[in-house]
Amino acid sequence: MSDANYVVEVNETNINDIVQMSARVPVLLDFWADWCEPCKALAPVLDALVTKYQGKFILAKVDTEANPGLCQQLGVRSIPALKLIVQGQLAGELNGAQPASEIEKLLQTVLGDAEGEPEQPDENDFFAQIERARGMGAYDQAIDALQSAIAEDSKEIKYQTLLSEVLMDVERLEDAQQVLDNVTDEKAKAPALARLFFLQEFLCFDSAESLQFRVAQDANDMEARYYLACNCVLAGEAEAAMELLLEIVQKDRSYKDDGARLALLKIFDMLEGKSVVAKYRRRLFANLH
């Protein structure tokens, strides 16, 4: 990818997407303005770091003149200002024009050193590049890269399962299903199949808010609980989803022909290897017996 793909413009309409992006790749917010001479001096320093780190972080530029409300919300009192966001949280910040060495110190708290990397990307670099593309919303590029990789090595299951995930990102569910149908390793494709299941389940509902209202109003509304759990899974709130599904298991095993228990098992597939799975497996077992 070119350096331009590692730089995004931020405004009040896409800031939430940028914060979500930080779950996949660190985001360095750069607050600047046209009239700010130190900002102009800092710009080429940041551009050089973007080139050096080649997508290990995303530079997200915020025009303070165009986004005063956003600056106030994020506590920006003077510019230039840099804020490093990781997993949706502030991981560090710098104020004023800074030399490259100081900015690198900030970046290296989460990235490590850019020096000493192999010139030729290995397989892990390829997957990391795909994840960065997803984080930036460059889905077409990610799909093209994965399809090319599959054409070269059709036996590599990781390429196919990741392609299905990217297709799901853009709601091409039938295409994602077709890709997964060609994967014979049931265990390898289980997490992707689980996500596809919840996407398909939630298609008939437009609003999580309406489901939350129904849950609050009626303790016996199993449908609202079930579909709110589906939404929670897709929003990355797996524990909240499992709590809702356990309630249904406790109150009405017959709902959707034991659908809550089956949905829990699919979440376990999605979270395979994480400690929280053991906790909820025990709770499910206790409820069933």
Keywords:
Serine Threonine Protein Phosphatase 5, Tetratricopeptide repeat; Glutaredoxin; 289 residues; 5-stranded mixed sheet; 3 domains
Strand fraction: 5-15%
Termini separation: 54 Å
Count the DSSP helices: 14
According to CATH, the fold-level topology of the largest domain is Glutaredoxin
The CATH homologous superfamily of the largest domain: Glutaredoxin
Helix and strand sequence: EHEHEHEEHHHHHHHHHHH
Fraction of helical residues: 55-70%
What is the 3D form?
A: globular
Widest sheet: strand ordering: 1-3-2-4-5
CATH architecture of the largest domain: 3-Layer(aba) Sandwich
The number of strands is: 5
Radius of gyration of CA atoms, rounded to a whole number: 22 Å
What is the name of the CATH class of the largest domain? Alpha Beta
Q: How would you characterize the overall build of this protein?
A:
- By secondary structure, the chain is of the alpha/beta class.
- It has 3 domains: 109 residues, 3-Layer(aba) Sandwich (Glutaredoxin); 80 residues, Alpha Horseshoe (Serine Threonine Protein Phosphatase 5, Tetratricopeptide repeat), CATH 1.25.40.10; 86 residues, Serine Threonine Protein Phosphatase 5, Tetratricopeptide repeat.
- 59% of the residues lie in helices and 10% in strands.
- It contains 14 helices and 5 strands.
- A 5-stranded mixed β-sheet has the order 1-3-2-4-5, sandwiched between helices.
- Strand 2, helix 2 and strand 3 form a beta-alpha-beta unit.
- Helix 7 runs parallel beside helix 9, helix 10 runs antiparallel to helix 11 and helix 12 runs parallel beside helix 14.
- The longest helix is centred in the first third of the chain and has 17 residues.
- The chain is globular and about 65 Å long.
- The protein starts with 6 loop residues before the first strand and ends with a helix.
- About 2% of the residues have low confidence.
